[in-house]
Amino acid sequence: MSSINSENASTLESAMQLMIQTFHKYSGNEGDKYTLSRAELKEMLTQELGSYLGNAQDQDAVDKVMGDLDSNNDGEVDFTEFIILVGALTVACNDFFLEYHKDGTKKNTKKE
Amino acid sequence: MSSINSENASTLESAMQLMIQTFHKYSGNEGDKYTLSRAELKEMLTQELGSYLGNAQDQDAVDKVMGDLDSNNDGEVDFTEFIILVGALTVACNDFFLEYHKDGTKKNTKKE
């Protein structure tokens, strides 16, 4: 993906580039270069989200994520399905950090 | 968001952190700290996605994005609505780069 120029990218553009780069880092390993096979999905989950998902080593967990994501039932996760996973995880993380932040600053409500 | 530790984060975790940080950078400026008002959305679009959206200076364009995103019609964009925008833009960017990449490497089909 040498056509992506990360110089002068905004924070959000950097995030978008990192998501695109991550997908293609794994999707090119076998079969269709532009989708994640079950094995590629497992490697991506383990390498990239090990600390979030914990048990990606577990084949049942990988099968469950694949089943949830693979909306067209072709046994492959395409880029849109990958973005839906990342989006859902990001929303969950944001909720978690907001709860944490609110709990930690209950006495400090300057802006509310 | 000092509770997010970016050390040892994977590429994908970094992307997720950058999206969360970007949203809160703008959402805290006025009104509800956890949603983007119309003015905050405009600032975010201009600062972060100027090179993608081009005409975010245009109030009509901001109104259109707000109308498309604000699914619960409360005049504010919440984090989930923001992630849907970023996800849709990332899918569009990926499609664009794949087309570009395919056109540029038509003769070089080692893996297909």
From TrEMBL, chains A, B:
GO molecular function: calcium ion binding; calcium-dependent protein binding; transition metal ion binding
UniProt entry keywords in alphabetical sequence: Calcium, Metal-binding, Repeat
Superkingdom field: Eukaryota
Matches recorded under InterPro entries: EF-hand-dom_pair, EF_Hand_1_Ca_BS, EF_hand_dom, S-100_dom, S100/CaBP7/8-like_CS, S100_Ca-bd_sub
Lineage summary: Eukaryota, Metazoa, Chordata, Craniata, Vertebrata
SUPFAM superfamilies named in the record: EF-hand
Gene Ontology cellular component list: cytoplasm
Protein name: Protein S100
Gene3D superfamilies reported for this sequence: EF-hand
Coiled-coil regions listed: none
Domain EF-hand: 57-92
